[in-house]
Amino acid sequence: MSLQGKKILLGISAGIAAYKIPLLVRLLKKEGAEVQVLMTQNACQFVSDLTLATLSEKSVLSEIFPKSSQVSPTSWTCHVALGEWADLYVIAPATANTLAKLASGLCDDMLTATFLTMPATKPRLIFPSMDREMYRSRSVQRNMLQLVEDGCKIIEPESGELASGLIGEGRMPEPENIMASIHSEFQNMLQIDRLKNKRILITAGATREKIDDVRFVSNYSSGKMGFALAGEAAKHGAEVVLISGKTYLETPGGVKRIDIESAEEMFEEAKLYFEWSDVFISAAAVADYRPEKKIDGKFKKTTDSFELQMVKNPDILAHFGEQKKRNQIAIGFALESSDHLKHAQEKLIKKNLDVVVLNSPNIDGAGFEVDTNIVTILSKEGDIQEYPLMSKRDIATLILKKSSCFFDKD
Ligand code: CTP
After folding, report:
1. Ligand 1 proximity of 355 Cβ (cutoff 6 Å)
2. Per DSSP, what are the bridge partners of residue 279?
3. Ligand 1 probe mutation, 316, 319, 355, most atoms within 8 A of CB
């Protein structure tokens, strides 16, 4: 895929690897991309802005308030226009200092201010590069995790000889490899754009199964995964209906949300929309059982113990997968604490699904309530792909991309 006409912001911060960036600019320009370079002041110590301006055929921007008297009175607002203009923001090399600023929302130069003003829908690729111990430090790791949670893609540095003489991770990938990441990012965008005008039904969050008027049985699901899916799908032009258990999350723009409490209510609502949908994504943590009888009023503690008789809830996903599915693409989740792959594969087959997203509740950064997850995606064609720790937003993009592959075959 060529980069003809693609508009790329290229942020350079002050790492020794900056000396390789002119070559990257050259490769981007050769493929027809428009490149706007944004440099921190200190980055100019490592690479000349004249070189970069010459290769990119655009003035390099650095400070928000340049000292030159020739600057027009409105030039300081150009970071806003640049964020609107760009298709992609690449930051390479990203130093520890720049990562810290980006993670905390500081914006005291063009590179960081433009990062903040760029609409959240646009992709950002960040290439951290620094010395080994700096890279391993808790603060750098924390900031990278924050950026992943904020929806950025961090490309891990390579291992090898570093400017300090140490050997280890911290090297920025070669320009050719950065180009490969840029290509794959545009490929992603192209793929996911196939969701335009598709109808997507999503269930999200935990159901609540009432014991009495003030108590219920539920689980820790926050709904974040389902809401991320709904938001991403709507952003890419899909029509989205989101059936959600109780949550404090805000409804993503462009999404029709239906609130329910119990599994039975979720099932009834889903029945109304399943026929309408092209894709059904079951991200809800549906309670498998509910109390057989809800007690009226508030149950009094008159005994030392009591037994709660539970009965099975409908399996919403299995119902649609097994009995109702015609052309719909059905995607389920599998939360497994043992024999992960085996159980996920069983669910894929038993519930007649196209895709299963496997995750585990006992890995750091994965599972309920957090903004990140570690997943393996299994498809009915037999491919199994494992992914590293990612933001739920990026995982949503992956899942939607996976579902859009099935459209090609229609
Ligand atoms: N699911 C559903 N209705 C249920 C239970 C689960 O629609 N009553 C859906 C979930 O939304 C998820 C998938 O089925 O997409 C698998 O859920 P999970 O809880 O991992 O598995 P279960 O099928 O409930 O099986 P088990 O609890 O035995 O692992």
Report:
1. no
2. 200, 329
3. 316
